[in-house]
Amino acid sequence: MRKIVLDCELTEDFKWMHPCYTFQGKNIVLIHGFKDYCALLFHKGALLKDPHGILVQQTENVQAARQIRFTSVQEIEEKQLILKAYLDEAIEVEKAGLQVDYKKNTEYIIPEELQNKFVEIPDLKTAFEALTPGRQRAYIFHFSEPKQSKTRESRVEKYLPHILDGKGLND
């Protein structure tokens, strides 16, 4: 995969503990290794046409990135020309300055347990709204995940000090 990517005249870097390939300083693609497969992750994959139907959205919450997954070297070799076409398109997307249209945090449903705390502790709502959109989303997803209200409530309680201190979920 590395050879195919480098043939597209991208600059090799190392970000997020993975080989990352850029065009004029903008991230184009990352090589990921997983237990059962390896993948090329296109940072703006949602903007690619995907005529072969091979781009995968890792989870429902991933908005921009898409992967092409491989389970064998033979698979990579067979798709060399297709990969080159996808890489060329990804570079063209970057050259054109296209941007992914991200959902606004207002489009996400804030769990009732967090809304109740906003009413109870007005400073919490102010602190939450001061967080970056990514940190807000991380909390919303984390708090919304459990099926039981009791568990959602305990998660909100646990992270109150973090939010009030302006910290993200993993800070």
From TrEMBL:
Which InterPro entries does the UniProt entry name for this protein? YdeI_bac (IPR016786), YdhG-like (IPR014922)
Any Pfam family from its record, for instance, is DUF1801
Provide the YdhG-like domain boundaries: 2-91
The name under which this protein is listed is Uncharacterized conserved protein YdeI, YjbR/CyaY-like superfamily, DUF1801 family
